[in-house]
Design brief:
Elements (H helix, E strand, L loop, with lengths): L3 E11 L4 H10 L3 E12 L9 E3 L1 H13 L4 E6 L7 H10 L1 E9 L4 E2 L2 E2 L7 H9 L4 E2 L3 H7 L11 H12 L5 E7 L5 E7 L4 E7 L8 H14 L4 H17 L15 H12 L1
Parallel strand pairs: 1-2, 1-4, 4-5, 5-8, 8-9
Antiparallel strand pairs: 2-3, 6-7, 9-10, 10-11
Bound molecules: 3-hydroxy-5-(hydroxymethyl)-2-methylisonicotinaldehyde (PXL).
Length: 277
């Protein structure tokens, strides 16, 4: 099968996040990547101060109708940064255009470092939860995971039991696999835990001391591409983390607004090719 994925998130014209990462990265994984832009911003909201915002909610159902008339179907969906009013129209698109057995990746992009992103209302996690239920792969960071569960984020000082309970509670929301990012038991290491309902897979890398916007989007894009290329949950999570680390290391200091993922696309394609052998 040659899968076609639909990525639903914003276009931040400058800033290396969301669709400007997903489209090249998932395409480089050898997966046909279609896009449904949720909004167009001049830049992302993480550090730029003059961003414009054009909400494309009204376009979603028109686009859906066009696709239905053309008989288009998708084998996979990957949702990221979306607006609160878009949850229902997006659920409708995923229902009406899903090919049989379509896989859903949900990155509940809304918060980081204990705080909601600018412009999202406090009740957004309850809305986002509706998109998360039924996901094949749910990829929250620690802050998003806490908000989805209606809890106060705990960003340090936790132990394995705390993390594993949280991952099991996320799983119980009605998802098939959970990949929790931003987990750290040791200040020098940062990693993820993936859970398929029976096993927990930890993956850690040395923590790179840089604030990097768009790393979650790069992680989710590589992860989705790797899963669709047939890699296992644990291998996809580990590959995504390795690519994010390489991209951060390849990013010049003055390039504060995103990660220079372009430089690591050759590494990504080589890793996928050797995994297929
Ligand atoms: O990387 C997540 C993201 C996506 N889209 C927009 C954002 C952010 C994070 O700040 O602002 C518009």
């Amino acid at each position: 099968m040659y899968p076609r994925l639909l990525s639903i998130q914003d276009v931040s014209c400058v800033g290396q996040c969301s669709l400007t990462v997903a489209l090249p990265v998932i395409s480089a994984c050898g997966i046909e990547t279609a896009v449904l832009p949720s909004a167009v911003l001049s830049t992302h909201t993480g550090g730029f101060h003059n961003y414009t915002f054009c909400d494309l909610t009204a376009e979603i159902s028109k686009i859906e109708q066009g696709w239905l008339k053309d008989g288009l179907k998708f084998d996979a969906f990957y949702t990221g940064y979306v607006c609160p009013a878009q949850i229902d129209p997006i659920l409708s698109v995923m229902k009406s255009t899903a090919a049989s057995g379509a896989v859903r990746f949900v990155d509940p992009v809304m918060a980081d470092n204990g705080k909601m992103y600018p412009g999202f209302p406090d009740d957004f996690p309850q809305q986002m939860l509706r998109l998360c239920r039924g996901a094949d792969y749910l990829l929250p960071n620690l802050t998003e995971a806490a908000f989805l569960l209606g809890r106060t984020p705990v960003l340090s000082g936790y132990d394995r039991a705390f993390i594993e309970n949280m991952v099991k509670d996320l799983y119980a929301l009605g998802v098939k696999n959970v990949v929790l990012t931003g987990v750290s038991f040791d200040p020098g290491q940062l990693g993820t835990v993936a859970y398929d309902g029976s096993r927990m897979f930890y993956d850690f890398n040395p923590r790179l001391e840089r604030i990097s916007h768009g790393t979650g989007d790069l992680y989710a894009s590589v992860f989705a591409g790797a899963i669709l290329r047939g890699l296992s949950l644990a291998d996809s999570a580990a590959l995504a983390a390795d690519i994010v680390c390489s991209a951060i290391a390849a990013t010049p200091d003055e390039h504060w607004y995103g990660v220079a993922f372009e430089k690591v696309i050759p590494e990504l394609t080589q890793r996928l090719a050797s995994a297929a052998r």
